[in-house]
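Example record used in the benchmark description.
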Amino acid sequence: MEISLNGHAPAEALRPTPLLPPGFSVPASRWVHPSSRLRALLKSEPFVFAPGVYDPFTAQQAMYYEFPAVYFSGYSFAMGHVGSTDMDLYSSVEIADGARRTVSALRKFQLTMAVGDPDAGVSPRHLPIPPLLVDMDGGYGNAFNVARTTELYVGAGVAACHLEDQVLPKRCGHIAGKALISAEEMIGKLKAIRNVADDLGNPDFVIVGRTDAVSAVDAPESTRGLALAVERACRYLDTGLPDLIWCEFPNADRGPVETFSAEVHKRFPEAQFAFNWSSSFKWHAESNPLRWTELGELGYRFIFITLAAIHANGLGFGQLLQGLRRQQQDGYIALQRAEFADGLDLPTRSHHLFSGVAYHNLMGGEYGAARLNRDILEEHHAAQTV
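Model output (structure tokens):
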């Protein structure tokens, strides 16, 4: 069974915008709130897959290939922003600013792709803006810290967040030594998210409640392991606050994934889950890896790979660096040969196209901006550059 990852109608209506020259247009969903868009996707699709990113550029790449949503990973942000591991070493303001810049970049990218490059014969491409779900870790403090972070996220145009029930400073879900706050404290934090989002006029803001109970080494309850995860999930769902529940599993075994779904659905038949198809697991070594269609049927409706962009960057850039060490300039020439191979849909091979030089030249003419217009193309030998 093949599932479309697009998450939007193929013939989405187009509308003009004052941010484009006359004759150009963008998908009408530009003016649908990202939270509302994500809710509609969760309701209509068997599952929503979101690649994990950590900055505007990687999010724009996911948007170009028309993934329906984007996951802004805290671990990836820790590596990309502060060069360290996932242990609350950045603040709420830092990750909220990263999310704000990413949402802004996606809106800008829609404009630049809607222009294409008329002078280079590149046709416009009408891309929907994927809603962004952002990691909120443990909320960076108590319920009032959570409230402030939510205010920053909602104001940034973030569609959704997830909050975990770990003691602060938290640890990556796949690093040993995790401890849980009480269920009551977690519920208070979830309530803070819901109240702030509602007060700011976004009742559609999607909340994912995460429990790390399966592998926590310390918790207020006497129950442990998967049984505690089920208990926590049901307590959180009973409040009506989280829209989805994320149980962090310690490995790729399918048994606990199926059991968790079945046990929670006994009490909450309509419950929806988020699933971390984690980069920490060696899926390539699994004889029967969990497939996204299976997860969707089990109720795991939001699926993501946390460090997708980090690992892809590590592979691609690592290979380039090794080539440069061995072959000097020929290492980069090899990269360009691969970029410009026939049949590739790789927009980043023209960084000018990807970053929107054509758009800025067009709008520079509209705004009368100095040295930004189509007349300067010949002066810069545009035909010889990428």
